[in-house]
Amino acid sequence: MSQLGPDAVRSALISENDLLADLAQTSDPETPIPTCPGWTLANLTTHVGRGHRWAAAMVADHATDYLDTKAVPDGRPPRDAEGADRWLRDSAQLVLDNVDGTGAGVPIWTFTGPRPAQWWIRRRLHEATVHRADVLLALGHEVTMDHDIAADGLSEWLTLWQTPGRGRSDALLAEGHTVHLHGTDGGEWSIRPAGAMIDWDDNNSDAAVEVSGTALDLLLMMTRRIGTDDPRLTTSGDHAVLSDLLAKTPF
């Protein structure tokens, strides 16, 4: 499965973050977000904007260790609506600016081990895409997303769970348990156990359970924004294998 190129990822980070800001600008900040229990829209936008600034700060500092989110510069949005809107929009651009200033290939701390600074652009993009979906679902709106962005988001999410260790002692998938995701609008994701973690590729292979749907609906399912019984999905095989994987891979 090919992924978005660096230029496309940069552009998408800004456009997706702006779409989230547009929603926040026209909605009640106290709107509950059911897919993020206990959060309001204001909590969600603060989480996304602070997360962007957290990544940007680590990139700027050539971080080799975790940065406490409480230490993030300008980690809280202004109290006024106009200032909060500008703060959220600027936060995504700050990621790009700091990657450019530091150098895209410079190793930076990540929760998957040291990665090139530009790794954070893709991670922050898909943090924004899924949380934009949270807001749309909360508002009762249809979730829409460019196919290539959704497909890349699914690939990026699975790749995060390839990292050895990540503090796990129990396997995400038992030996012999495999999951195949079929994108009805293009794309294949075959997931198999790899020690405590998973591995995946874009082969169309037999699996214990197969799920078909658009790349967006598969992304929403894997990040637990819609259920496996959603009518937009078609599932065959051992549902328990899929349910177990989802339970162990929270967004």
TrEMBL record:
<keyword id="KW-0670">Pyruvate</keyword>
<dbReference type="GO" id="GO:0005886">
    <property type="term" value="C:plasma membrane"/>
</dbReference>
<dbReference type="Pfam" id="PF11716">
    <property type="entry name" value="MDMPI_N"/>
</dbReference>
<dbReference type="GO" id="GO:0046872">
    <property type="term" value="F:metal ion binding"/>
</dbReference>
<keyword id="KW-0413">Isomerase</keyword>
<feature type="domain" description="Mycothiol-dependent maleylpyruvate isomerase metal-binding">
    <location>
        <begin position="18"/>
        <end position="135"/>
    </location>
</feature>
<dbReference type="InterPro" id="IPR034660">
    <property type="entry name" value="DinB/YfiT-like"/>
</dbReference>
<dbReference type="InterPro" id="IPR017517">
    <property type="entry name" value="Maleyloyr_isom"/>
</dbReference>
<dbReference type="InterPro" id="IPR010872">
    <property type="entry name" value="MDMPI_C-term_domain"/>
</dbReference>
<dbReference type="GO" id="GO:0016853">
    <property type="term" value="F:isomerase activity"/>
</dbReference>
<dbReference type="InterPro" id="IPR024344">
    <property type="entry name" value="MDMPI_metal-binding"/>
</dbReference>
<dbReference type="Pfam" id="PF07398">
    <property type="entry name" value="MDMPI_C"/>
</dbReference>
<feature type="domain" description="MDMPI C-terminal">
    <location>
        <begin position="148"/>
        <end position="242"/>
    </location>
</feature>
<protein>
    <submittedName>
        <fullName>Maleylpyruvate isomerase family mycothiol-dependent enzyme</fullName>
    </submittedName>
</protein>
